[in-house]
Design a protein that fits this description.
Elements: H1 3-13, H2 17-24, H3 30-43, H4 46-60, H5 65-81, H6 89-101, H7 105-121, H8 125-133, H9 142-158, H10 162-179, H11 182-193, E1 200-204, E2 207-211, H12 213-221, E3 225-228, E4 233-236, E5 239-242, H13 247-259, E6 264-265, H14 266-274, H15 281-297, E7 302-306, E8 310-315, E9 321-325, H16 333-339, H17 347-354, H18 358-370, E10 375-377, E11 384-386
Parallel strand pairs: 3-9
Antiparallel strand pairs: 1-2, 1-9, 3-4, 4-5, 6-8, 7-8, 10-11
Helix pairs in contact: 1-2, 1-3, 2-3, 3-4, 3-5, 4-5, 5-6, 5-7, 6-7, 7-8, 7-9, 8-9, 9-10, 10-11, 13-14, 13-15, 17-18
Amino acid sequence: MDSLITAAARALAAGDPLGALNRVALRDDAAALALRGIAMAQLGDLVKAKDLLRRAARAFGSKEAVARARCIVAEAEIALVSRDLGWPAKALDAARATLEQHGDKLNAAHARYLDVRRLLLIGRLDEAEQKLAELDPAPLPAALKAAHGLVVAGIAMRRLRTKTARAALADAGHAAREAAIPALMAEVENASLVLNTPAARLIARGEERPLLLEEVEALLASKALVVDACRHVVHEAGTVVSLARRPVLFALARALAETSPQDVPRGTLIARAFRAKHADESNRARLRVEIGRLRATLRTLASVSATTQGFALLPRRAQEIVVLARPIDEAHAAVLALLGDGESWSSSALALALGASQRTVQRSLDELAAAGKIQSFGRGRARRWMTPPLPGFATTLLLPAPLPGG
């Protein structure tokens, strides 16, 4: 490896892509192409970066397996940043195996972190935790230690383990400062903001207030009966009743919980649960049936009592009933939460992350675009969607992952 390639590699490792390009911008050999690709990725030109890395992989040939594997790992990182979640994971696994076989432990570890970050992004937390447990960050350089801390914190926040998340972010911040990479320090700082901005709303007795993620964790560990509108479950002291596939019952439970112990008029319940404008005899009969189903479903946690005007929800053991609501009432909140990271997403990547059909996601995107909440660029398969980060609150509870007990 010549001196210019070595100097360019060191510049990239220090987060100086322009310094790297100054040394190899006019070269088209395999090593220079790879370094130019990484530099363009750091500068944000992901399309050009991907092209350069693929050219580099072809130029290295089959005899330079380690160099080709490094190019594949770099391309996988670009795919992750550009939210190309359909990028073949098997190619990354094969590259990682090659790097491990040839003793390149650092790049092999980097490949593992990319895999874990992808799993975290699509909400497969159990797999992400399992693979993360196989990694020991102690012998790694500062940049990878920061990446480890960010992944640990990301999983902990999705699991509502705020103490673990704070400790991991503190470690990540220390490592990022040691690495002296501005982009990495900014990423840690942005992740830390999630713990200090409202993540949900507490609704009780007709009043509401914002909650930090730490307060959400405390609420779910308390003795209150919580009607969780983030995951459509009702839980109390470890007992969880899911109403995720029974939207009418959940709408009734939420409406009753918001004003408990006061009752809710029948007309209001009909409007909330059935979206009907008139409380005619047909809707009243349907309401009696659905209330009966709700009463049976929640029988171990709460009672549903008829009153002169309507119905009231009362806890059996808990001292109070509260509603944990999303930070915003938005029909497409989960889509907005993913787009809120500031990156550009394809509809296929959103569908994969949300576990929904691409057609369903596309309808949500069209409605959000018509309302001026998101924007797109490109056409066909190259079309991407994005929005600035949602202001004023964290999106952790909007993302598609189970809460404790869920």
